[in-house]
Specification:
single chain; 8-stranded mixed beta sheet; 5 helices
Length: 192
């Protein structure tokens, strides 16, 4: 899909920090990715909802955009070719019974809904989320030109402060709150 270069690690060379770059590719999810996506998803619970392989397959079938961030095979990194993270985005009228999705379809019916985005812990804090969101925005503008925004929720209790700060930095604002499976969430929206 979209190749890019992103910092993957910092190494120290005699007291100086040197940023190493490895090639990353943002591409569409394939069936071969399901087990790795499930592994990343479950490692990120409760920041994302728990899932089974069947549930994830349903989400991917209903999703309008489903991406993985993958280290390119020519990377010299030890995680060469591995999936670093993923995202799933729904458009209006998806067959999805999430109360958060339903809330957004009632209040922001022309918005796309980012159901989940998660990364392997080894890749947190390296700008991969920013790249993923930029690609999601690009695909929404290209493939869903009638969409007016992007919506999502972030946990408030238990708190997910890094995610709240990240989304505010990207221009998302809170438009509501609700309980979802025993977790209070901030319902956030950003106009495209």
């Amino acid at each position: 899909m979209t190749p890019s270069w992103n910092g993957v690690s910092l190494t120290s060379t005699r007291g100086a920090c040197v940023r190493r770059y490895v090639p990353l590719v943002l591409r569409n999810v394939t069936d071969a990715d399901l087990n790795r996506i499930l592994e990343i998803n479950e490692a990120n619970v409760p920041a994302v909802g728990t899932a089974t392989l069947e549930h994830l397959a349903h989400l991917l079938a209903e999703g309008s955009i489903a991406l993985v961030s993958e280290l390119a095979d020519d990377s010299a990194d030890e995680v060469n070719g591995d999936i670093a993270g993923f995202s799933i985005v729904f458009g209006p009228n998806a067959n999805y019974d999430s109360i958060n999705y339903q809330w957004f379809m009632e209040h922001h019916p022309t918005s796309m809904y980012l159901d989940r985005v998660a990364f392997d812990d080894r890749f947190h804090g390296r700008g991969l989320g920013t790249e993923m969101y930029a690609e999601v925005d690009r695909l929404i503008r290209r493939d869903h030109p009638d969409s007016t925004g992007l919506s999502l929720e972030v946990n408030i209790d238990p708190p997910n402060e890094p995610s709240l700060a990240f989304h505010r930095k990207l221009g998302f604002v809170e438009v509501g709150r609700q309980m979802s499976k025993g977790i209070e969430v901030s319902l956030m929206h950003r106009t495209l």
